[in-house]
Amino acid sequence: MATLKIVKFGDPMLRKISKPVSEINDRTQTLIDDMIETMREQDGVGLAGVQVGVLRRIFVVEVEEGKVYTFINPEILATSGEQDDPEGCLSNPGEYGMVRRPMYVTAKATGRDGKEFTVEAEGLFARAILHEYDHLEGRIYTDLQYREATEKDFRKKNK
Ligand code: NI
User: Fold this and answer.
1) Pick from 3, 56, 133, 152: CA 20 to 30 A from residue 27's CA?
2) Given 23, 120, 122, 132, which residue is catalytic?
3) Structural domain of residue 126, as residue ranges?
4) Which pairs from 119-128 meet CB under 8 Å and 24+ separation?
5) CA of 140 to the centre of ligand 1 (A)
6) Considering the domain boundaries, does residue 7 fall inside one?
7) Is residue 3 part of a domain?
8) 127/69 Cα distance (integer angstroms)
9) pLDDT reported for residue 1
10) Backbone angles phi, psi at 138, to 5 degrees
């Protein structure tokens, strides 16, 4: 496994729309392993292919330690509710903004085993899925940010 270089905000790459993954092969498996290692090394909860220079519809999410989800060619099936919390991105280290997102999301994707799965996510997990999905569409969280996050926002969140 290897850690990968992360594409940073300001790079036009992050504005491109990712293409579907056509085949899950050995290279895909290596990419997934490397993405997980890179996400963990940077203490992130999610990482999309485009962020490591791979313009394919793939991302990894690990909100609960040890429980990694790999989303290949994901679809957002439904969203509901609302949450307001600080949000950051490994492509924009050290910065956080307040972003309103749905509280619940139902998403469908192919896993690294090639099998399709559906997940119902809530809270931070839902936020992470939607944040990473945005990356596949060339969107970044600052597009949705209504102000910068303050210390107080984080204290409120950890209560
Ligand atoms: Ni991000």
Assistant:
1) 133
2) 132
3) 12-157
4) 119/69, 123/83, 124/45, 124/63, 124/85, 125/61, 125/63, 125/64, 126/79, 126/83, 126/101, 126/102, 127/83, 127/85, 127/87, 127/99, 127/101, 128/45, 128/46, 128/61, 128/63
5) 7
6) no
7) no
8) 14
9) 79
10) 80, 20
pLDDT value, residue 159: 54
User: In angstroms, what is the span from residue 129 Cα to ligand 1's centroid?
Assistant: 10
Q: How far is the CA of 146 from the centre of ligand 1 (A)?
A: 17
| Domain count within the chain | 1
Burial class (CB in 10 A: 0-12, 13-18, 19+), 80: exposed
Q: In the chain, which residues have pLDDT < 50?
A: none
Query: Considering the domain boundaries, does residue 39 fall inside one?
Result: yes
Q: What are phi and psi of 77, to 5 degrees?
A: -90, -35
- The pLDDT of residue 158 is 61
Find the 3 Cα to ligand 1 centroid distance in Å: 17
In this structure, is residue 31 part of a structural domain?
yes
- Find the CATH number of the domain harbouring 97: 3.90.45.10
